[in-house]
Give the backbone structure.
Amino acid sequence: APAGPVKHVISLSPNGRSEIVYLLQGRKRGYYTLGPLFATCGDPIGLVRPHEYTVPPDHITVFPKIIPLTSLHLPSRSPQGTLRHHQPIFEDPARILNKRDYTAGDSLRRIDWKSSAAAGRLQIKQFEPSIALETSIFLNLNGAEYEAQHRIDAVELAIVVAASIANWVSEKRQAVGLVTNGVDPHTDSRYVPPIPCRKGRGHLIRLLEILARVQSAHTTSIAALLRKESPQLPWGTTVVVITGRAEETLFDELIQVQRRGQNVVLILVGRTVSVQKARQQARSLGFPLYAF
């Protein structure tokens, strides 16, 4: 919405010039049309026939709100990445942490011969544990899986959560992707194709543009979406499922996701009825559940 009036009448002296500035406030995410702009010019007493000018419309995208995440614990099984990890099974040979004296049983491949020659005794390289956090966000925008009384607010909150997680993962220089059953009213098919996991600021902007336009509708369920798209993901991918309701069919699919070697994080948004029951079930299956 503009902060001031959008109609102006101005008077120009010979060779005069005037500039009109409109301040637009993006209060709500979306894809908006600006214009067209109409201008009419003439002389004050009407001696010259007025001229009309039309500037064609343009468009602007308002991204969803991004909440800074100070600490987000997403599990990963992919070693040798750029994120530090506390488990030594994820040691990265490219990241040397320090050195220590040789002990019986150490691999000869870990010996640092230059340091050994300088110290006069065998030195072993110690590597820093690291992981690669490849994250695929499954955003449920099937309206039937949200409480009817709070559906609009819950869906918007789900989109904010998805945008915030995508931004957090991208800032860590990790790959992030998006899969959703929502619709894009500004495309011919209205279907939102899955976006594979990629790195970089440009890829994040593409995700945010889709999250700005996507809308809720009565589409396929999140369980069916997982059944179709999650087998295409590589081993070790972190699957973040954002939905408004956790049903038995969803948990059945999440079990299959785990069995394929992928990591599961379930996020419930809105006023969900059985949060405690879902939390207990998620704990018994061994994956985290967060509720907003």
